[in-house]
Amino acid sequence: MSTKKSTTTTEMLTQKIKLPNSLQIPQIHLGLYEVPPSQTSSVVRTALGVGYRAFDTAQWYSNEAEAGRAISSFLSSPSLNRDGLARSDIFYTTKLRHNYESYDAARESIARSVEASGLGYVDLFLLHSPLGGRKAREASWRALCDAVSEGKVRMAGVSNFGVAHLREFSERGLEREKWPAVNQIECHPFNTQTEIRKVCEEMGIAVQAYAPLARGMRFNARGSKLGGLAKKYGCSEAQILVRWGLQKGFVVLPKSTNEGRMKENADVGWFEISEEDVEVLDGLNEGLVTDWDPTDAP
Ligand code: A2P
């Protein structure tokens, strides 16, 4: 059965894993997808209070500036920032909405996001999708790599890239350190993304799992294996899904706007899913796409 582990919620939220590029990344991030700009500030402030240190936004979400401002005001408030956190204790990710064939347009867009964050630099900047074609992916990636060289961005990565898009990095003859640090993809037991993960592993690209809760779409299904496992381990279905992602070695991005659920999603350090039960979860794969899937885009 489960082996009890004693990692606290706070420790879970500060726990980092080492990426193939040797940089470190917190293993649990708060996803800010679909958080309305008007609520972002309070959601980020609440999450910082709970202990979250990593936030995942995007140009597309229209809440980059709000997320950045909430982080800055938390850090500069002695009454909120009781642990004396510094900017370097926070991990801020954003994403380029469009891939541009024009290198200059991509550079400008990246610079605007860095500026909007108000944080001085972005920890991780991703190409949000492979859409736009090979030429646009190439020019936008070059722009991102140059932003890293200039220090405005600490690491560059991709999101929603399929096998063929990932292979382009080796086909282009780019040196290894210019390959993406991460590929952020939808990943949970109902969509295990085996092929893409295999290529990520071969190429030394870390997997970030978005929609790790499958957007709640498979919760509370009568007689489900997920429900059975939650009962067995004495935790919630959400906690089983977060734990599955962590045990696979992914960076997971559960999204919640609710303080209790934010805590619940990170309170997963006290149990471990057995290998046998991880296999049961792997067996739930049905290729569920909760939103979009551009991994086959030309
Ligand atoms: P809410 O923001 O009201 O908590 P995903 O991370 O897969 O994208 O899933 C996000 C969805 O799951 C949101 O609708 C979120 O709603 C909900 N959610 C987040 N945490 C939990 C939880 N612990 N239990 C049930 N639903 C959750």
UniProtKB/TrEMBL annotation:
Name of the featured protein: NADP-dependent oxidoreductase domain-containing protein
Source organism per UniProt: Cladorrhinum samala
Keyword Ribosomal protein: no
UniProt cross-references to PANTHER family, sorted A to Z: 2,5-DIKETO-D-GLUCONIC ACID REDUCTASE, ALDO_KETO REDUCTASE FAMILY PROTEIN
InterPro entries (alphabetical): AKR (IPR020471), Aldo/ket_reductase_CS (IPR018170), NAD(P)_OxRdtase_dom_sf (IPR036812), NADP_OxRdtase_dom (IPR023210)
Residue ranges constituting the NADP-dependent oxidoreductase domain according to the UniProt record: 34-285
Keywords for the protein's UniProt record, in alphabetical order: Oxidoreductase
Site-annotated residues for Lowers pKa of active site Tyr: K95
Amino-acid positions noted as binding substrate in the UniProt annotation, renumbered to this chain: H128
The UniProt record lists the keyword Chaperone: no
Entry's Gene Ontology molecular function annotations: oxidoreductase activity, acting on the CH-OH group of donors, NAD or NADP as acceptor
Superkingdom, taxonomy of origin: Eukaryota
Gene3D superfamilies with a match to the protein in the record: NADP-dependent oxidoreductase domain
Active site: Y61 (proton donor)
